[in-house]
Amino acid sequence: MAIIENTFVYINIVMLIISFPGNILIIAVNILDFCKNRRLPVSDQLIFGCSVFSLLHGLVEIVQFAIEEYHLITAHILMYFNIGTICFSALLNIHFCLKIVNINHWFYIGLQRRFSMLIYWPLMTFLLGYTLINFLSLLYIKQKVLLNTTSAVVESQACSWSLFICMSMSVFDTLLCLVSTLTIVIHLFQHMKRIQENTMGSRSPNMEVYIRTVITVTTLLAANILLFSSMFFRCILVALNEMFGLHLFSILISTCHIFSSYFIIKGTKKLDTVLVKVLNQCLLLLKPNQ
């Protein structure tokens, strides 16, 4: 059993090493951009937040093996980072939808104009609210353990209501992501079809941008659905104390974070350009002098 656990530890370390450069690239580029321009567009802010949560998730995944006796606490922290990633991804897709799709309705138009100002309220509510939920849940567990209550019963009682709230938030964010993604994809395909008809089948310069956007939002949606499903089963396995399945779903969640970071970079022209420059510089350094 120790061999299997050590294997999963090494796999998680490899996952972190793979995800580390992509997340660091996104974070560094956005920090430098902010220092240069003293502002960040809403999309870059959301991408930055998503990358921070993804990076912290990978670090906690490694730490949890060093403090295995506190696996319930680390499970709550990991759930927090996963829901944060889903929340930022959903808001990013909604932002793309509001920028790309025009709907002649007073509520939608008002949301388009005020989204950059309204976005901070749900984020602050999520960050503070879920932190409070985790704190109260873990405080409840500690209190019951000190009163010599059975550990399994304590974990079950503490996780039941907390898990319900967390899963409800995740379902809501995933549904928002699904609706906004489908709206974007349908609108862009209709728009590309009209462009091809008007240009007699020739390829428009904007076509590549549309295809890049479709790939980005659909990938984020797929990653969110996989992340939510894995997180749901992972929470059940934490309650059942089933460590083998827990490690498997941890690896799947880490994989979702890696692919999300990759497609965010490829879907953002600024990040993709920086990545190409960095890779070219690395190739020049590795290339022997002639």
Question: In terms of topology, how is this protein built?
Answer:
Blueprint: H1 2-37, H2 42-66, H3 71-100, H4 106-118, H5 120-146, H6 151-198, H7 207-240, H8 243-267, H9 269-286
Family: Belongs to the G-protein coupled receptor T2R family.
Membrane topology: Multi-pass membrane protein
Organism: Eleutherodactylus coqui
Question: In words, what does this structure look like?
Answer:
The chain is mainly alpha-helical. It has a single domain, classed as Rhopdopsin 7-helix transmembrane proteins (Up-down Bundle), CATH 1.20.1070.10. The chain contains 9 helices and no strands. Helix 2 (42-66) runs antiparallel to helix 8 and helix 3 packs antiparallel against helix 5 (120-146). Mean pLDDT is 77; it is low at 149-158.
C-alpha-based Rg, rounded: 21 Å
Counting helices, strands and paired strands, the structural category is mainly alpha
Specify the CATH homologous superfamily: Rhodopsin 7-helix transmembrane proteins
Per CATH, what is the topology? Rhopdopsin 7-helix transmembrane proteins
Q: What is the count of helical runs?
A: 9
Mean pLDDT: 77
Return the domain count. 1
CATH class: Mainly Alpha
Report helical residue fraction: over 70%
| CATH architecture tag | Up-down Bundle
* Ends distance: 52 Å
User: How many beta-strand runs?
Assistant: 0
Outline the low-pLDDT stretches: 149-158
Strand residues, percent: under 5%
Shape: globular
The largest pleated sheet is described as:
none
**What is the ordering of alpha helices and beta strands?**
HHHHHHHHH
